């Protein structure tokens, strides 16, 4: 028990450091607002009322697993949902803060425990690319992919997958920021919403489990370790660097500019090979 208490204290200290570093960056770049929740427009906030809990959904940063946890907290059986073939992303049991009247939104935002998880912006981008363009997703693999191919290819080789390089050039040229690769600062508005806990993908299980204990979740509820594509290696920094090697210096610089605030606010180091 001693060790547990000790490491929990240690974790709380790390949380304080993350929060004050975020706060300092928000101030430095003049992104802080009065923070009374008058102007919160993000549609990414999932809410669970029994434990007064809000998690900001950042795609490619453990989102599906948070959905599973919240359903479990709501006493909804994940196994039943799976049996009924209801996707974790497609049913109306999960509530967003935005669904409530404005005044109620303010109350919820002020009094609930709010958490946000982040990931290295380029690792997240590679993860989104692999998920959306290298797997059979109709919308991304066909509709979005075709518009990218039309832009960058002559009528040859239309069957080949969109390459990471083409995808990145598309983002840089169009600033078409789909929710899966939109900047984390835009998805979760962290200079305006005072998050109680800031989790990181690299420490997601420890962060998530400590948060679950904090909100008083039943002891047996743990953050799951489920991957969307079970047979593939997770996108980590080593793999990310492999993808980055296919980009030009100019494209990498462009990505830094595009995700600059995410790097600065959440303290991710700038990739400096190449
Ligand atoms: C910070 O933002 C406020 C409001 O948007 C603006 O009035 C002010 O000039 C900005 N300050 C700096 C240093 O950019
Ligand atoms: C959760 O569901 C189980 C099985 O349906 C039920 O026995 C239990 O009372 C429920 N718990 C809560 C807190 O609703
Ligand atoms: C769920 O989907 C799988 C394959 O997609 C199918 O084999 C199974 O019959 C479905 N189950 C139900 C209950 O619809
Ligand atoms: C497309 O074809 C034109 C003319 O043949 C050529 O100049 C151009 O470089 C080609 N573009 C690409 C992306 O292959
Ligand atoms: C596209 O990528 C997927 C996954 O890597 C691969 O299985 C498929 O063969 C590729 N398709 C083409 C036309 O290269
Ligand atoms: C996963 O990574 C290991 C080590 O880099 C590699 O040997 C293996 O082939 C990879 N597996 C897949 C499915 O890509
Ligand atoms: C990334 O994962 C591969 C296996 O999938 C592993 O070989 C490699 O060491 C990992 N890199 C990092 C930085 O963890
Ligand atoms: C990099 O580009 C080469 C040549 O186009 C391709 O064969 C390879 O799969 C690419 N690597 C990655 C990680 O996208």
Automatic annotation (TrEMBL):
Topological relation to the membrane, as annotated: Single-pass type II membrane protein
Localization in the cell: Golgi apparatus membrane
One MF annotation (Gene Ontology) recorded for this entry: sulfotransferase activity
Keywords, in A-Z order: Carbohydrate metabolism, Glycoprotein, Golgi apparatus, Membrane, Signal-anchor, Transferase, Transmembrane, Transmembrane helix
Enzyme class: transferase
Any one GO cellular component localisation term in the record: Golgi membrane
Superkingdom as given in the UniProt entry: Eukaryota
Keyword Lipid metabolism attributed: no
Pfam families, per the entry: Sulfotransfer_2
GO biological process terms held by the UniProt record: carbohydrate biosynthetic process; proteoglycan biosynthetic process
EC id: 2.8.2.-
Record flagged with keyword Metal-binding: no
InterPro entries: Carb_sulfotrans_8-10 (IPR018011), P-loop_NTPase (IPR027417), Sulfotransferase (IPR005331)
PANTHER family in the record: CARBOHYDRATE SULFOTRANSFERASE (PTHR12137:SF15)
Family classification: Belongs to the sulfotransferase 2 family.
Protein name per UniProt: Carbohydrate sulfotransferase
Species in which this protein is naturally found: Latimeria chalumnae (Coelacanth)
């Amino acid at each position: 028990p001693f060790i547990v208490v000790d490491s929990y204290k240690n974790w709380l200290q790390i949380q304080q450091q993350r929060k004050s570093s975020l706060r300092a960056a928000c101030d430095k770049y003049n992104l802080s607002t009065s923070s009374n929740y008058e102007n919160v427009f993000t549609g990414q906030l999932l809410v669970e009322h029994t434990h007064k809990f809000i998690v900001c959904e950042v795609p490619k940063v453990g989102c599906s697993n948070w959905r599973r946890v919240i359903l479990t907290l709501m006493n909804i059986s994940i196994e039943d949902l799976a049996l009924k073939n209801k996707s974790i992303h497609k049913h109306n049991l999960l509530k967003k803060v935005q669904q409530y009247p404005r005044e109620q939104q303010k109350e919820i935002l002020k009094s609930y425990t709010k958490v946000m998880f982040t990931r290295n912006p380029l690792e997240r981008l590679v993860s989104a690319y692999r998920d959306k363009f290298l797997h059979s997703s109709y919308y991304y693999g066909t509709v979005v992919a075709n518009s990218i191919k039309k832009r960058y290819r002559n009528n040859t080789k239309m069957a080949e997958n969109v390459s990471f390089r083409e995808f990145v050039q598309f983002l840089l040229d169009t600033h078409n920021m789909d929710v899966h690769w939109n900047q984390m600062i835009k998805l979760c508005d962290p200079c305006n919403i005072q998050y109680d806990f800031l989790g990181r993908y690299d420490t997601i299980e420890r962060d998530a489990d400590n948060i679950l204990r904090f909100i008083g979740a039943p002891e047996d509820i743990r953050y799951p370790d489920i991957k969307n594509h079970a047979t593939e290696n997770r996108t980590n920094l080593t793999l990310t660097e492999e993808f980055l090697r296919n980009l030009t210096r100019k494209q990498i610089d462009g990505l830094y500019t595009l995700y600059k605030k995410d790097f600065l606010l959440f303290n991710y180091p700038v990739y400096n090979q190449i």
